[in-house]
């Protein structure tokens, strides 16, 4: 009778794999234990088969507790949230005492099915119902008169299951070892070299240095400097920004390039980075730099991988990656300095780019056509809409003007001020002050005088503007006005020094 149970066990396992497309999660030939899974809609249907004779229900309960522990310990091996698990016990006889299912705490939505000789047909029908199979497995479990022939059949089915399992594991290895991370390492080196170079010629925290060497700067892009959409991906603002992005590039880039290969990885990286820069151009008027958009594109590529290989994705990186993406999004929302538009543009761009190039050995013409259309449409809308908007004054513009003033680049200061179309708002007084200084240094005193008058009208507490205006009134022979603005500047400076003793006076 043992031969009959063994034949039924291995035939059932083989039937579920070959005819019902279950995947082998675990296979133990000697213990005659098989774990199978079938995923659908992010949920897993799990079957655990065991060929063993249990005489008492307590032994079954102990085995179920063992299964619960195994499920908790190895839940990452399943491709999604476990919807139900069927525990199938193949045996000649049921337990001597009656098994009471409610008395056992089962993990997830579990079913205990005894496939004893007198319950095989009902058990298979229950199995079909819980897993929504079209029909129950049709297995002739009765042995004919030639047991040796069926012994060889058992060995054949065991061998076939073992071969299927080996092929599944080999396929997994091939997916993650398709390419080598050569481009990832090259990008790391390029970013480090550029960072070192910028530090040697200026400072990576200097707005003027960043803009001159290719940061995302909206006025420059509107004037035709489209290359900034790419060059900004290689600039970083300070050491911490560089280290965070390079660490992310190392880990994510290595994974994506190994999965997609170097050519596809390069396409994904740059297409994601460009769409991220375009989104930043449209939504964010500040100066921006960094590889974050392209790096979020690598997240997008892994999410596309999850879509095409859900079982393999959840078995390897799974929820860890999804949680990491969510943490980065929440971090971006809560930290004001983070360019969320660039991150989200990169994430979407990476997903579309991955769909465009597709995974190795996979190709779907419809997916590619849709991704090309969506990417092109998104890029066109972002760039066209961003280019058509007015250039508004930002804090970055003021900092840029200040740095140009410190470097005595007055003509450049005037070029910047002329490119700004809307200067009203929070920073208008400082904008007028810096422009007046550039006018003074370039011999345009009348224009400087008009700007300073406007500046003190907008911000009467602007001590530096009062001081410079007093000098111009003195040059014009208006001693009364000169004295008034001089006294006003000294009064404001005195108030500021009382609040901040280390503050220098205007000069």
Overview of the structural elements:
This is Rhomboid protease GluP. This protein has a 5-stranded mixed β-sheet with strand order 1-2-3-4-5. The model is unreliable at 501-507 (pLDDT under 50). The relative contact order is 0.06. The protein is elongated and about 125 Å long. Helix 11 crosses helix 14 (340-357) and helix 17 crosses helix 18 (428-441). 63% of the residues lie in helices and 8% in strands. The chain is α/β, with parallel strands linked by helices. The chain folds into 3 domains: 2-173, Dna-directed Rna Polymerases I, Ii, And Iii 27 Kd Polypeptide, Chain: A, domain 1; 182-388, Rhomboid-like (Rhomboid-like fold); 395-499, Alpha Horseshoe (Serine Threonine Protein Phosphatase 5, Tetratricopeptide repeat), CATH 1.25.40.
Topology readout:
Blueprint: H1 2-18, E1 23-28, E2 33-40, E3 43-51, H2 57-73, E4 81-90, E5 110-115, H3 120-130, H4 147-176, H5 182-201, H6 207-212, H7 218-222, H8 228-231, H9 239-260, H10 262-283, H11 292-308, H12 310-316, H13 318-334, H14 340-357, H15 365-388, H16 395-406, H17 410-419, H18 428-441, H19 445-458, H20 463-475, H21 479-499
Parallel strand pairs: 3-4, 4-5
Antiparallel strand pairs: 1-2, 2-3
Pfam family, one: Rhomboid
Transmembrane segments: 182-198, 233-253, 265-283, 289-307, 319-338, 366-384
Organism: Salimicrobium album
């Amino acid at each position: 009778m043992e031969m009959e149970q063994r034949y039924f066990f291995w035939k059932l396992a083989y039937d579920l794999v070959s005819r019902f497309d279950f995947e082998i999660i675990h296979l133990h030939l000697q213990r005659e234990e098989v774990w199978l899974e079938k995923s659908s809609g992010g949920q897993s249907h799990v079957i655990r088969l065991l060929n063993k004779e249990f005489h008492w229900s307590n032994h079954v309960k102990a085995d179920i507790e063992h299964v619960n522990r195994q499920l908790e310990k190895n839940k990452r091996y399943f491709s999604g949230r476990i919807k139900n698990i069927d525990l199938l016990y193949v045996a000649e006889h049921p337990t001597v005492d009656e098994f009471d299912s409610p008395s056992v705490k089962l993990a997830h939505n579990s079913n205990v099915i005894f496939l004893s000789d007198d319950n095989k047909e009902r058990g298979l029908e229950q199995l079909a119902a819980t897993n929504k199979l079209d029909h129950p497995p049709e297995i002739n479990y009765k042995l004919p008169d030639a047991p040796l022939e069926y012994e060889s059949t058992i060995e054949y089915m065991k061998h076939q299951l073992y071969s299927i399992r080996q092929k599944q594991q080999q396929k997994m290895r091939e997916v993650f070892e398709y390419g080598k991370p050569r481009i990832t390492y090259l990008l790391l080196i390029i970013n480090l070299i550029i960072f070192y170079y910028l530090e040697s010629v200026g400072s990576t925290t200097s707005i003027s240095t960043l803009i001159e060497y290719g940061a995302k700067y909206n006025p420059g892009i509107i004037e035709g400097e489209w290359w900034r959409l790419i060059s900004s991906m290689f600039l970083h603002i300070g050491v911490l920004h560089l280290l965070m992005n390079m660490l992310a590039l190392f880990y994510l880039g290595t994974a994506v390039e190994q999965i997609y290969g170097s050519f596809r990885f390069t396409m994904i990286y740059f297409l994601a980075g460009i769409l991220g820069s375009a989104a930043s151009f449209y939504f964010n008027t500040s100066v921006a730099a960094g590889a974050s958009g392209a790096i979020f594109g690598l997240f997008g590529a892994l999410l596309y991988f999850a879509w095409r290989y859900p079982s393999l994705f959840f078995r390897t990186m799974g929820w860890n990656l999804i949680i990491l993406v969510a943490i980065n999004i929440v971090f971006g929302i809560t930290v004001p300095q983070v360019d969320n538009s660039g991150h989200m543009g990169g994430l979407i761009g990476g997903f579309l780019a991955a769909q465009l190039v597709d995974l190795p050995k996979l190709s779907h013409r419809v997916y590619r056509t849709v991704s090309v259309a969506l990417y092109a449409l998104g890029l066109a809308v972002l760039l066209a809409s961003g280019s058509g908007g007015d250039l508004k004054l930002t804090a970055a513009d003021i900092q840029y003007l200040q740095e140009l003033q410190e470097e005595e680049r007055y003509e450049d200061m005037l070029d910047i001020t002329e490119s700004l179309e809307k200067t009203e708002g929070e920073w208008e007084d400082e904008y007028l002050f810096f422009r007046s200084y550039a006018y003074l240094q370039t011999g345009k005193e009348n224009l400087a005088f008009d700007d300073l008058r406007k500046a003190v009208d907008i911000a009467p507490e602007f001590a530096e503007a009062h001081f410079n205006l007093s000098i111009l009134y003195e040059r014009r022979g208006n001693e009364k006005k000169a004295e008034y603005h001089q006294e006003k500047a000294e009064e404001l400076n005195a108030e500021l020094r009382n609040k901040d003793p280390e503050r220098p006076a205007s000069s």
